[in-house]
Fold these 3 entries.
Entry 1:
Amino acid sequence: MESSSSTPTTWTTYALASLATVVIALLAKRFRQKKLNLPPGPKPWPIIGNLNLMGTLPHRSIHQLSLTYGPLMQLRFGSFPVVVGSSVEMAKVILKTMDVTFAGRPKTAAGKYTTYNYSDITWSPYGPYWRQARKMCLMELFSAKRLESYEYIRVEEMNSLLQGLFKSSGKPVLLKDYLSTVSLNVISRMVLGKRYLDESDANSIITPVEFKKMLDELFLLNGVLNIGDSIPWLDFLDLQGYVKRMKVLSKKFDGFLEHVLDEHNARRKDEKNYVSQDMVDVLLDLASDPNLEVKLERHGVKAFTQDLLAGGTESSAVTVEWAISELLKKPELFGKATEELDRVIGQSRWVTEKDIPDLPYIEAIVKETMRMHPVAPMLVPRCAREDCKVAGYDIQKGTRVLVNVWTIGRDPALWEKPEEFYPDRFVGKDIDVKGHDYELLPFGSGRRMCPGYSLGLKVIQSNLANLLHGYKWKLPNDMKPEELDMDEIFGLSTPRKIPLVAIVEPRLPRHLYSL
Ligand code: HEM
């Protein structure tokens, strides 16, 4: 009897106790959140957060918002807080003072599906695997010695660009095609040991056109705002169809990379006095090293290889195309560049990489192009690895962190007439692009800074210098400079929306073009 009469009381007690616990937990959470001093930002909508405020060019939408909410702003993309730094001071805090805290990368569908489940360098989380990858970049892949040893490749490929343009003199040319062929061939020969994607190679399993399309798709898919990344419970619907495209793309890349690794492994096995000749060889050597701190698996070698091919191809071509476009809009600047080239180099030879430090105006054009058209306008997203405070505001662990270098490049407090393409602003100024001048960060800064920046810069500077040294440039069909469209499209890189078409005429003695 006693037990039966006490049962309902016990249940009621349990139920009340549980309810009280839930209420206390909810109140505690609310109380904790209330106490958080989050950076200012627009009020988020339920479910979508602030995604409704993002236009087709998110860096521009975010720029507009930062004019209202200030240099440290918090947005919400679906379920995730996103903090944006938009000033030199904030860039310095995020990329230098608190670099270790913000050295993570968010988990995205692109990282999962297109980079072998985050096994590449760009999307791998901060930790021993990524640290080892960066060490390899520093010591093996991009050491000054190795880059110098590949100079002959860069020269040969640039020569074929200059020759190709000579053959098309007087006719409209699609500059980007020429530029991405050079970049692709340079990086392909350095990383894979040969052009691989040579039209004339009967064994080639992929055409250059197809491969460039794959790289364009990779850059686009790595830069898009995929709804499933922001609203995980909608992920399975793949509303924009991006995940499907990622899976198709990764299959294509994998087929190609498998072929590359098989060929390299065969040579390692068959050649008597085998020595490593290219970056894939170096990666395979490292993968077979038993003393490596963290094992590098076959899929890791493929992921790194793809990263290097992608990082090395698109960005340099995009930057040179923007530079020539800006000059065509302000043709009087061609004269300043050629005056310097004629004075320093003369009319009897081409420009070499070693000449670049003697060509401050060319360097200034490159910097000005990177200020106005940074390839990655908000760098690559980072992720807070722990709760922390920036400028007195609370930033929660897992927050995605962007640095809007596009906004910094347009800050009127830093740049006079920021909308104007004016390379002279850099002449005689001690500002470089190597990650310590926070007003100009096209390669980022800190631990996650672009490891390929010195290669990228070499290709951009020497290609641009020779394009200006060797050719006169004009717009086709008597197009006026003001009619040249300067719209961009957003992805992981930010190229011209309408590729540049221009007409070139040689400006050096003819015999120099038989390269
Ligand atoms: C114009 C040329 C280039 C530009 C403007 C550029 C820009 C960038 C930027 C902005 C980042 C992100 C930095 C950050 O998160 O703070 C990055 C990362 C990276 N870049 Fe580049 N890049 C260029 C060329 C290259 C080249 C030539 C390679 C390799 C061949 C390369 C490989 C990478 C890799 C692997 C990362 C990821 C680094 C990490 O997460 O630790 N890039 N690049």
Note: The pocket of protoporphyrin IX containing FE is lined by residues 121-122, 134, 187, 307-308, 311-312, 315-316, 319, 375-376, 379-380, 442-444, 448-452, 455-456, 460 (CB under 6 Å).
Entry 2:
Amino acid sequence: MAPTPKPTPNPNQTYHTPSRTPNPRQRLQFPTPKAGCGTHNLSSVPTEHPVEVIGRIRDHPDSKERNHNPLIEIPPDGQSIKVRTDIGYRDFTLDGVSVSENENLEVFYNKFVKSRVEGVRVGSKCTIMMYGPTGSGKSHTMFGCAREPGIVYRALKDILGDGTHEQGDPVGEEADETGFKLGIFVRVAVLEIYNEEIYDLLSANLNAGAGNGIAKGNSQKTRLEIIGKKAKNPTYLSGNEAGKISREVAKVEKRRIVRSTLCNERSSRSHCMIILDVPSVGGRLMLVDMAGSENIEAAGQTGFEAKMQTAKINQGNIALKRVVESIANGDSHVPFRDSKLTMLLQDSFLDDKSKILMILCASPDPREMHKTISTLEYGAKAKCIVRAAHPATPKPTSQSNAESVTLLASQIALMNQHICELQRDKQALLKERDQALKSLSLNEDELAVVRFEVKRMEEKVLRQDNEIESLKNRLREFECGGREVVSFGHVTSRLAEMVGDDQNMVKSMELDYSDQVSSGFVDVKEVKEDTSVASWACNLLPTIEEEASEARNLHLHLLPTIFEAEESEEVEKEVVQEERRDEMVPVTEADRQTRIENIFRLCGNYRELAKKDDNKGHIQKYGDENAEPSPLSAKSQLVAALAGSPIKVKSVSPLCPKEAKWGEMEGGLDVYVKWEVSKESSGSMITKLTVPKDSTLSRLRLVLEAHFNEKNNNQDFVFLLLKDPMGAPVAKEMEAEMQVTNLPKCSNKIDGYLASLRPLKNGVHRPIHLPLSPLENKLGSPLVST
Ligand SMILES: Nc1ncnc2c1ncn2[C@@H]1O[C@H](COP(=O)(O)OP(=O)(O)OP(=O)(O)O)[C@@H](O)[C@H]1O
């Protein structure tokens, strides 16, 4: 590693304690300049250390104070700075230190910069940054002054050709000729970063229409976007004439935003970046003149805009500081994107071929000493940045090739095995998916069937509802028109006719309908006992019931049968009935309900009652306790019931072997208990009970079960609510909540309730016909008690 060129020791300078600045792990060294030619041995430049830090101490602003008790001392090694503070000296070791009083710009350039620039000429990449507080001489070093050109112009001259400098011209014309002779061609962009925006200073110049690229002071700048790490489409100055390019750069540089501050009369408020490419060799030189890193108070900025401006300037400086610290610390994340400046400088830090020359500008003014120290601390940190050295690429040998081939082959085998496993997994997953799809399809089919059934069921229920409504209307019209007598008489006439056709029946049986209807009581005239009539009635009604079995309930399907009888038998509309309309007693709603209930009760119960007419042709006439049992044929009872005649029942003794006295009580409710009629059961009366008025069915059950026990009959049962359209069984658990008064009344003439019991086999209801489909039954109709 070549040593950093040591400056000539100044006998006037004093030397103090050794450096306390942390030593970098690898430090860049300047190549030893070859005498005479001014070039350096670039091959000796180490590549591991990307940042080189040079201190540049400007002239003292006050010439009177020069050499008067200086706070900054430069040791003779020329690589460190000693700063005297209140608590002692602080040493900062850098890669080089230059004092402008001793070394003008030319010397400084030749000593520390020239070698880098010449490296760019042959393809290297270098970034030269001016860092320091405001007024410390950054711009002066970068651009120079009228007396001496700065780094920018000298670099252009060095790249495009060696030459001498003419007075008033940044670079001599000779440089242009040299560059032309060498065939080197450069491309230059000049950017300004102000308020975190990138402006193209050359674009303003060219858009001004100068033709020759001369900048116009008031031309508007063009803002550039940033893509990745580069400004998008900047304007370039291209050429091989250093003089022309330098002049144009000098002009556009004057367009930088400056402001007078306490620290600097013409303080740069923006960062300026000059990007010089040498396309033929891929070299790149980035020259960055940063705005002052002063704080707002020190700059004496007042007003919101000025403070914001200073804050934005500091944003770039602070971001750059963080980038340097992150890299030096070896952090995994470097905050390049914290500012536009660091975004554009990203390649400078990361590109292996790129080097950074950081020139720390400082003032010897004791009043600026804290800024000087801060700047030097920053430079010392930057010096610690180490880029990992790239391991030398071993030359492949035949042995290593064989090993590589073996290694790759094993890796390929592993990968193939992994691929096979993945393919197997894929096949399994595909199979699983197919099965799931199949199952889903089946479920969808089932769902479609269920939906179809539900739809069909709904349609059926709707039809039945319509039918019910229609029947109710017909019945209402029928009764309101006073035709009930006709209807009932019609039916009874039909019954009589049918009975008359029955050879087994006694023809002499007569019914005085007029008396029955007009008196309101069944008046039986020498009706011969005819069990065949009762049998017929019992046989006929189940037939009706069977016809209605397709309907929802017995009521709904019995009624049309009656109406059909009326419609089909027009001949039977006897005048006799018509003539007696005037004699009819007005039918109240209660009577109508009672009659309807009587009809169903007869169909379900009374017919059996007639059938069980003890084969003697006698039947107890209800309602008259003292009356002797009157012989009454089933036909007569049926007709009486159909005609709305009150049936008086006091005792069921004719129906029951023995009158039930058990359970009777004063002031209670009379309950007539019978079995439901079914194919298996004839629907016989069981008993008559008297229970308290507020008795529930559960209480009635207790009484009945006691009664059954007395009879040695353990038949289980459920109550039927005959008022319910379905004659629905009452669930046992509901019996406690249901009053006996909910049971149907025998009739409006008989003060008693009718308890119809449905026998249970093994505690299970016998199947009842439901209007719903089997599917609906499966779904659990609430009508089915399990
Ligand atoms: N080495 C020097 N010799 C003579 N004059 C100098 C030197 N350095 C700086 N100056 C003068 O000091 C003034 C401020 O310098 P300059 O503008 O370069 O500072 P700066 O660091 O760029 O400040 P800012 O950050 O505010 O732009 C200028 O007038 C400049 O000519």
Note: The pocket of adenosine-5'-triphosphate is lined by residues 58-59, 100, 132, 134-140, 145, 264, 267-268, 291-292, 361 (CB under 6 Å).
Entry 3:
Amino acid sequence: MSVTFNGKYLEPFIGAHEYDALQPQVTALHKVLHEGTGLGNKFLGWINQPETYDREEFARIKAAAEKIKKDTEVFIVIGIGGSYLGSRAVVELLQSPFYNNLKKNTPDIYFVGNNINSGYLNEVLSLCEGKEVSVNIISKSGTTTEPSIAFRVFRELLEKKYGKEGARGRIYATTDRAKGTLKKLATEEGYEAFVVPDDIGGRYSVLSAVGLLPIAVSGVDIDELMAGAKAAKDALATDDLSQNDSYKYAVARNILARKGKDIEILVSYDPAFAMMNEWWKQLFGESEGKDGKGLYPASAVFSTDLHSLGQFIQQGSRTMFETVVHFGEAKTPLTIGKLDEDIDGLNFLAGKTLDFVNDRAFEGTVLAHTDGNVPNIVLEVPKISAHEVGYLIYFFWKACALSGYLVGINPFDQPGVESYKKNMFALLGKPGYEEQKAALEARLGR
Ligand SMILES: O=P(O)(O)OC[C@H]1O[C@H](O)[C@H](O)[C@@H](O)[C@@H]1O
């Protein structure tokens, strides 16, 4: 097993019999999930995806990535939510958060269309000056405002730079197989198109073309990523809690929620994991947070945040627990040197690696936070590799699905996201929203 559930530090908070008590529910809900009889059952394509994914499209993704690596210096990835977080998370974790600054033979990658800030977009535009640019527009619906606006801007840039025909060969559209504005445009313009499968929702789409094209462009081995997910699919196909660590994680967080915890903080000791935190927040937040229920997904990177949030976690309101993703092996170890004169008093660490120190910080923190009544789940991941990350992604997917069913909600929809959108469209004066506009303007005192 690649990702293992370490429940050692949970023992003061959860007794073994509490897991056993939930086994019958897990067995029943596992059946519901695998037989597709539960809520949101139109969106279960991810369960078998690591095995059944479209090989022909996978080969096209690799070919497109190779072309982009050859003819592109700046690759612009346009998308928001599930159409952006996963690919950025995997690139930053497996390559580097400094990916664009590395000396490398792959293009720089900028993620846009994930906000509506003009400063951000202007800065990325200026980074494209004098560079060979290609664009991947990613939207399952094809109608999301943020990426649509950014695509307008970059399409214009490409058409000005390369002409209409030249731009066509540099635009890649990842969207619905058959419907939606973006699909229509891609067909009309002749952009190379990749598919977001009908039965896979945005937050479960990182291992489809949505994530795979940008990830492949960054030089990550996508075969290994898929092989890791496949290993997880096979290992996590059982309902037996003693054999399925993904379900055990789901159950532990469910028990803690029933004991009054409201917040789960996903913790890593690697800053390269920061965007994985963000990906995980969408996965669990959008899946579980509905009908007045769900754990609020928060995140922290230690030891950085021990110097900001650490005080609150140790002694503030006792509403949270932590889930630490602990990697066993560092990507590139670094050893601490010895000074002739021990001016900083750190010679006792000479010859030790930074990871040795980081691991003692981890152990010390887990024990301190546990003493402070913050339960700690630890997920052990042997190392940072494409295989392990593929496994981890699937591990979280599966845990999230079971978790949602345990909470009694539909883990695969997100109706609440529409509320702000409707208001925004009305306030922007979108045709058809006239009545709402008047009501909202009155509430805003205009
Ligand atoms: O891929 P898209 O259709 O553009 O959607 C992008 C994102 O925005 C929506 O508002 C949903 O809440 C997310 O689940 C989705 O991942």
Note: The chain has two domains: 2-34+235-405, 46-223.
